[in-house]
């Protein structure tokens, strides 16, 4: 009986992994490890709630002047149905198609090394005002330190728009007076 030669193994090349994505994943992991709220979460959250939205352009890293990572924020534009579930049931696992599924803006994750909270909050408001100027509001879940409880938070862009209009009018008056 003649033995058949085994079929040659086909080794597929793995798709190229972008170096910047590896760096971002490492920086996000560093930030999450320093966050009491995030450091016990499953590793899958790193991709699902941080890397995926950053790749979609719906997230930002924050760094010191020296370039050290100190915080990260992600947001989603959710469908009406998912928006209602988030309002009533709390945080939801978002599927890949959920991140850009509708008009409702949600801040999904916000992780920061403790000493940098206030400057980052201001920077996040600036991002929302700049990138979503026509969106009336954004929502978020404020999670307790033990990760077990949440309460709803809301940012009102109309107040920000009014503040911008007042500042522009004041700047015009100052310019006209000079």
Automatic annotation (TrEMBL):
GO terms for biological process: killing of cells of another organism; toxin metabolic process. It is an enzyme of class 2 (transferase). It holds the Pfam family HlyC. It comes from the Bacteria. InterPro entries: RTX_toxin-activating_protC_bac. It is found in: Cytoplasm. One of its GO terms (cellular component) is cytoplasm. Keywords: Acyltransferase, Cytolysis, Cytoplasm, Transferase. One of its GO terms (molecular function) is acyltransferase activity. Its main location: cytoplasm. Its EC number is 2.3.1.-. Involved in fatty acylation of protoxin at internal lysine residues, thereby converting it to the active toxin. Belongs to the RTX toxin acyltransferase family. This is RTX toxin-activating lysine-acyltransferase. It comes from Aliiroseovarius crassostreae. The lineage of its organism: Bacteria, Pseudomonadati, Pseudomonadota, Alphaproteobacteria, Rhodobacterales.
